[in-house]
Amino acid sequence: MDLNDWLVFTKIIEAGGLSAASRLLDVPKSTLSRRLAKLEDDFGSRLLVRRGRTFELTDTGRLFYREARHLANLVATASERLAESTGQEGGTLRMAAPKTPGGYFLGIWLAEFLQQYPHIHIELDLSDSIVNLFEQGYDLALRVGPMVDSSLIARKLGKSERILVASPGYLELNGMPESPDELVRHNCISFGEQRSGQSSWILSQNRKSQRINFYSALRCDDMATNLRLALSGAGISMIPTFVCNESLSLGRLQHVLPKWSGPTAEFYLVYTERELMPKRLRLLIDFITERSRTEKW
Fold this sequence. Notes:
Blueprint: H1 3-15, H2 18-25, H3 29-43, E1 48-51, E2 54-57, H4 59-84, E3 91-97, H5 99-116, E4 120-126, H6 133-136, E5 140-144, E6 152-160, E7 162-166, H7 168-174, E8 188-191, E9 198-205, E10 208-215, E11 218-220, H8 223-231, E12 236-240, H9 241-249, E13 254-256, E14 265-272, H10 279-292
Parallel strand pairs: 3-4, 3-5, 8-11, 8-12
Antiparallel strand pairs: 1-2, 5-14, 6-14, 7-12, 7-13, 9-10
């Protein structure tokens, strides 16, 4: 059995298929297909089930990918140790994160990290979908809690309240609501992918919660756009404090119903449990963890 085929298999999975792996490795697709077929012959079991242009891992394929990925990590670790002898860190890390924190504070942190470790490369994928680190070949991910996957190691980075905000111009024209019940008479901007007309917010004060149902004046599934809508005077929006702190401090937004707050967002850094973690991954995890302690959430 050729162990190079194990490494090729990880590339096929992480690239998302034979065609993408062919472009990545600069190897003909037919060659990769033959090597995959040989692996399946060696194991006497299908590793992938092809569905048009996509594929799914079989149970055997999922188990084999974890072992092949472990082998890839061993190779990467050996390469790192050789690099360490020259005083350099190197290699590529794949990271996934939700769009909002990824576009606000995470991008800044990664830029600072790369200044310290210029020989490390990072592939950052921003998506609000939950990725499978094992099957999709990610080294780590930033997630918003609560955490439910016990197969992953999770480091809590911090938390951020969601608060109601509006522009001074909007409040001057429409008045400042005195209680949550008054929100139904305001233009409310909802966040999410919900397609029905009615939306809701859950507000809390001193462990007392209240659900407010309303019909959105606007609904948007991008938090950066939600912020711009609030700044432009379109209405009242519920926004995490890490997104709107700067606008509040500059007076471009005002805190609405300051005694009430929405659900708290908890941020976690998650990664797979490995006996031999590549040093570049350990450096990034430690850097983000330390950097999060200085962040104003």
